[in-house]
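User: I'm new to structure prediction. If I give you an amino acid sequence, what do you actually give back? Let's try with this one:
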Amino acid sequence: MSTLEKLTQEELEQQLAEQFAEFVQLVGGLAHEIKNPLSTIRLNLELLSEDLGDPQTPCERRAAGKVEVVERECKRLQRLLDDFLQFARIRPAELAPHSVNDSLHRVLDFFQPQADSSGIELIRYLESDLAHVRVDPESLQAALLNLILNAQQALPDGGQLMVRSRTTPGRVAIDLIDNGIGMDTATLNRAFDPFYSTKSGGSGLGLPTTRKIIEAHGGTLSVQSEPGRGTQFTIELPTPRRITGELGS
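Assistant: Good question. You get back a string of structure tokens that encode the predicted 3D arrangement of the chain. For your 249 residues, that looks like this:
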């Protein structure tokens, strides 16, 4: 490839990146514009619900029921917008060497009371001599918590969630393995599709957001699952030596 062709390709990639950033900014702005009138609608619905707090006639009871339905849908739209804005504003993280096990302990300690109340046994197998990896701890912990909450939803009657850290060639891996309801092939194939959800009221942005966070760290997120037997999510993050080798190649 000639120098001219190479520059042209770089300019094209830069142009596409700028167009994508502009699109994300536009859509994010649109979402914010929707949130403002939605907040006004919710406030007026709450006031109307107070006025109908003790319905006496059949007409008033029907009106109160309709207000309740609209309130519920407004709350669902609010959650969807919040999830979308979080998804849209993820950028490459500020990375620094960090212990993956430290992040795992923090997230698991935070989740432990909820696990106890849900009948979920947390099992930790954390390799003691893991290499540090370059991460943004706050973003990584948010991704881990997303996966743990996803596992909780797959364990409606309780069960086990095993969290394991291990070393692989040039990488540090994190496995989250539950013995919950699992996913069939159709669901598994669409697990990371934005806005796809099998949960009532779900935004379908939890797993896509989690994958986006991991990819911003130069890592990968994969999943294996079988109905009735459980699910395994695996995060792989490159060690600093691997990152240096790839940049220098």
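You can read the tokens as a compact description of the fold. Here is one thing that stands out. The CA atoms of residues 51 and 64 lie 9 Å apart.
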